[in-house]
Amino acid sequence: MASFKGQVIARICTRSYCNAQQFRQPDRRIAARCCGRLRPTLAMMSSAEVQFENFQALAFVQSSLGSLSPNVRCLSIQCSNGEVDLYYTLEAESSEDREEIDDIEAEMYSHQLKGSVNIRSHVTISAEPRHLVKMVVGRPIYLRKE
After folding, report:
1. pTM value?
2. Contact by Cβ (8 Å): 101, 69
3. 47-143 CATH fold
C-alpha cells in the first residue's frame, strides 16, 4: 500500500499510466481525478483472488491466440467476485471479429475448472486516435501498436 500525505490509500486505479503517476508523484488528488475505476491493489487482494485473476488472464491469452485480426485494437480483462468481464476494442464493426469474440468466450468457458464462473464480453467500436492505454478497463492483455 502507498501512503499519500499521511493517509493510506488502499485502492488504486487499474490503468497503468495512472499507477505510474501515483508512484512518481505521491499525491492523493491523482487517485481521485484519474479514470475513476478503482480496485484493490494486489497487496489487498487475497491469494485466491490473485490466483483467480492470473488464471483468467492466462485463459484469455490462450483463447485469443491466432484469432486476432488487425481490426482488434485492445483486449483487457476484469475479474471480481467470481465473474469475468472481457473487454474488446475494435477499430471498425466486423462480423468476422464478432464471430471470433464468440469463439473466444466459448473457449474461455472450456478453460474453467469450476463451472460457476460467469463470463461476459463487452465490445467497443472506436477508431479514435487516442492512446490505447486510456481505453483499457481492468488488466490489459493486448494493445495494438499504433
Report:
1. 0.69
2. no
3. GMP Synthetase; Chain A, domain 3 (3.30.300)
| Residues 89/112, Cβ–Cβ less than 8 Å | no
CA 61 distance to own-chain centroid: 12
Question: What are the grid coordinates assigned to 143, written together?
Answer: 494493445
Pair 42, 50: CB distance under 8 Å:
yes
pLDDT digits (tens, 9 = 90+) for 85-118: 999 999 999 999 999 999 999 999 999 887 779 9
Give, in order, the Cα–Cα distances in Å from 71 to each of 14, 92, 97, 127, 133.
24, 7, 8, 10, 17
Domain with CATH 3.30.300 in the chain: 47-143
Indicate the residue type of 60.
F
